[in-house]
């Protein structure tokens, strides 16, 4: 599977059945080449006019299953994976 293929999949948290969005990017370990985190852009503020306030950075170990259309993750507290978006 390619990173491009991951970006087409919606991420759903199985703990609360919440749709988190689509994969926007991934982080990987430069030494091993393994994916370490999925990055899902958060909801836009003011209809996306001013960009996004936060994103979800999901550790790859929290991925439960990757299907044809969705990725199931198990995140007990979403606050633990919310990060402020970097500007500039």
Overall number of strands: 8
Order of helices and strands: HEEEEEEEE
User: Averaging pLDDT over every residue, what do you get?
Assistant: 84
How would you describe the shape?
Answer: globular
Q: Helix share of residues?
A: under 10%
Count of helical segments?
A: 1
> Low-confidence spans: pLDDT under 50, at least 5 residues?
none
Q: Given the helix and strand composition, which structural class is it?
A: mainly beta
What is the assembly state of the chains in this entry? Answer: single chain
Walk across the major sheet and give the strand order. Answer: 2-1-7-6
Q: How far apart, in Å, are the first and last alpha carbons?
A: 31 Å
Strand content: 35-45%
Largest sheet: 4 strands, mixed
* Computed CA radius of gyration, to the nearest angstrom: 13 Å
């Amino acid at each position: 599977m390619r990173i491009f293929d991951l970006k087409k999949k919606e991420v759903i948290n199985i703990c609360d059945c919440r749709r988190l969005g689509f994969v926007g990017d991934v982080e990987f370990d430069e030494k091993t080449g393994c994916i370490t985190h999925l990055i899902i852009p958060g909801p836009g503020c003011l209809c996306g006019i001013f960009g996004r306030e936060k994103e979800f950075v999901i550790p790859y170990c929290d991925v439960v299953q990757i299907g044809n259309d969705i990725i199931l993750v198990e995140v007990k507290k979403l606050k633990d994976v919310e990060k402020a978006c970097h500007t500039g």
